[in-house]
Every structure is written in structure tokens, then in C-alpha cells.
Specification:
Radius of gyration: 29 Å
Order of helices and strands: HHHHHHHHHHEEHEH
Structural class: mainly alpha
Distance between the termini: 63 Å
Strand content: 5-15%
Largest sheet: 3 strands, antiparallel
Helix content: 55-70%
Strand order of the largest sheet: 1-3-2
Oligomer: single chain
Number of helices: 12
Length: 345
């Protein structure tokens, strides 16, 4: 039996040629960068979308409370109003859950970004020998590195930036409800609102990439990056008070005890008390701890002083800190470009 007999003739107007294979819109380095980072995109991007959706729903749950707080219950005369007596009601536990779930765990977000997104980026390439193979390719090492870094950088910027915007929006309304789940400046809240989450995450990403390039072992790079990011967070938290000059208030007191009193504005939950104490007759300012040695002079003082950061210092302080972190990040990226150029050159 011939082949011609086994093959049915093609119908008129149809082509017997096979359908063309579906081609990806991404080609070359763009396709490779997506292929190597797609797990991170789905994991981090998906997780941040879920968190942001939860923050949006939580904000929606408190819309009626916010409206009452800014309207009907804004004046002191409304305190006897039953509707204003317990605004939060059963949702007080929801407020506590928000502070516990978003502030403390997400303080570790930059460390996780550096450890699991930044550190393996080049460390794995060294273990696989990819950088040595670049010498025989038509793509330059710097172009390959740019493509390799672009996807993680955009992913962190978009996902963490969206989380920071949503969390700041919700925290601001919680603050208007006078709900103080955590101190703004020295607590965990500072690291999860405003510019801080994005600046710290980009810094951790750049630091992880640099550590991976220097250490060239994935596991070791992950551990070293985690330690360095957490150490940097502790260090910056210790010097953060000096980023902006604190406000200083001097006020008269009666009945002594100047060493124990603080400025009234510093008692606010959104203020950061830096130092306080009595003012002696000659104008000398003593700290509260100095009164252990100058007890009589402190007790006789009728003037007290205090330095503190009000909430208005929050934005300038984050701008200074964010600028420093982004400058260090840029320096780390330039260092990586130089080292990769030498390795593959």
C-alpha cells in the first residue's frame, strides 16, 4: 500500500503546513532575566498583593469610625454621646492585631529581601561558573549584570513601595483615631511606614548582591547578608535621633521634682523624648541621670527643660535616612559592576 493512499488529500482552501510555534514576547537577556526571577516575582509580588489587599479591607472596616472621629465625635462636648463613648467597640482587638502583624514582622522585611533575593543573585552564578562563561558570549558582562539586577530591583520597588503606601495610609487613619499600638520613632512602626520600608529593602538588596559577589557561596552569603542588614538596622536606630535637631522646651514648675518632669508636648504617644532634666540657677541644664550626683540642686530648681522629636520631624528624619541608604546602595551597586567587570573581563 502506497503512502499516497494513506494520506488524505487536503481540503480546498486549507493549508497542510504546521501551525507556527507560539513565541514569547521576551527575547534574549530580557527572557533570561524573567526566567531566573519568576519564582521571586510570584512569591514576593503575590505576598505583597495579599498583604495590601488585607490592609485595604482593614481600612474599609474603620471608615465609619474615622468619619465619626473627625466629625460628630471631634469635640469634647461629644464625650457624653453614647455613639462616641466606645468608637472602636469590638474592633479594638482588630487594631491590636494590625499593630502586631504588620509592624513587628515587617521590620524583618529588608533582611529577608537581602537574604533570599539579593545574596543568591550572583553567589549562585559564581557556583555555576556563569560569570566565566560570559567571556565567550556576545553579551558584555555589564549588560548581562544590568539585566540580572533589573527584575529584582523593579520587583522590590513596586511591591514594597505599594506595601509602604498602603500601610502608611492605614497607619495615618489609625493615628487620627488616637490608637497608639506602638511608638512611632523608637518602635517598630517607623520601619514599616513612609519611605523607610522601600529605602531599607533596596539597601538590603544591593548589600546582598555585593556580599554574594564577594563571598561567592550561596549559603554563606545568605547568612552574612542577614547579619549585616540586622546590624545596620540596629546601628541606624541608635543614631537616628541625631538625623534632625530635636525641639527644646523650657518651662517653669512648682513644688520641685524638675528632674522627673518632661515637656507636655513630649508626653504625646507620637513624640520621641530625647532627654530632660532641671535647669540650675546659673542656666546649666542637667539630665535626669545627673541628679543622682546633684540631688539638692535638682530638687531646688524651679525650671525644667526637655528635648524631643515631635511628629513633624518624622518626614525630615526619614528623608535623611532614606537618602543615606540610597547613597550607600548606589555605591554598593557600582562596586558590584566593577568587580563583575574584572571577573568576566
Amino acid at each position: 500500500m502506497s503512502t499516497a493512499q494513506l494520506t488524505a488529500p487536503a481540503a480546498p482552501g486549507t493549508s497542510s503546513a504546521p501551525a507556527p510555534a507560539r513565541r514569547s514576547r521576551l527575547r534574549g537577556l530580557a527572557w533570561l532575566a524573567w526566567r531566573q526571577n519568576r519564582l521571586a516575582v510570584w512569591t514576593l509580588g503575590g505576598a505583597m498583593l495579599l498583604v495590601c489587599a488585607g490592609l485595604f479591607v482593614l481600612h474599609w472596616q474603620f471608615q465609619d469610625v474615622i468619619s465619626l472621629t473627625l466629625g460628630r465625635c471631634a469635640s469634647a462636648s461629644s464625650w457624653n454621646d453614647p455613639a462616641c463613648g466606645s468608637l472602636t467597640g469590638d474592633r479594638g482587638d482588630l487594631m491590636d492585631l494590625y499593630a502586631q502583624v504588620t509592624h513587628k514582622p515587617f521590620f524583618l522585611l529588608p533582611a529577608l529581601v537581602g537574604m533570599f533575593l539579593g545574596a543568591p543573585l550572583l553567589a549562585q552564578e559564581h557556583e555555576r561558573g556563569t560569570l566565566l562563561m560570559i567571556r565567550s558570549q556576545s553579551v558584555s558582562p555589564l549588560r548581562w549584570l544590568t539585566a540580572r539586577l533589573a527584575v529584582p530591583a523593579v520587583l522590590v520597588t513596586v511591591s514594597v513601595g505599594l506595601f509602604a503606601a498602603m500601610n502608611t495610609w492605614l497607619w495615618y487613619d489609625m493615628h487620627r483615631l488616637r490608637f497608639g499600638g506602638d511608638e512611632v520613632f523608637p518602635g517598630f512602626t517607623y520601619a514599616t511606614i513612609g519611605l523607610a520600608p522601600l529605602a531599607w529593602s533596596l539597601f538590603a538588596l544591593a548589600l546582598g548582591v555585593a556580599v554574594g559577589q564577594l563571598v561567592r557561596r550561596t549559603v554563606a552569603s545568605v547568612l552574612v547578608t542577614g547579619v549585616l542588614v540586622l546590624g545596620a538596622q540596629v546601628l541606624v536606630q541608635a543614631v537616628r535621633v541625631h538625623f534632625v535637631a530635636p525641639s527644646v522646651a523650657t518651662y517653669a514648675i512648682t513644688g520641685g521634682r524638675a528632674q522627673h518632669l518632661v515637656p507636655p508636648d513630649a508626653w504625646r504617644s507620637d513624640a520621641w523624648l530625647v532627654d530632660h532634666g532641671p535647669v540650675l540657677a546659673d542656666g546649666t541644664r542637667l539630665s535626669e541621670t545627673d541628679c543622682f550626683r546633684h540631688g539638692e540642686a535638682c530638687s531646688a530648681s524651679d525650671l525644667a527643660w526637655g528635648s524631643y522629636h515631635p511628629l513633624s520631624h518624622f518626614a525630615p528624619m526619614q528623608l535623611v535616612e532614606g537618602g543615606l541608604l540610597l547613597a550607600v546602595s548606589a555605591a554598593l551597586v557600582l562596586l558590584v559592576y566593577r568587580l563583575v567587570g574584572r571577573t568576566a573581563g
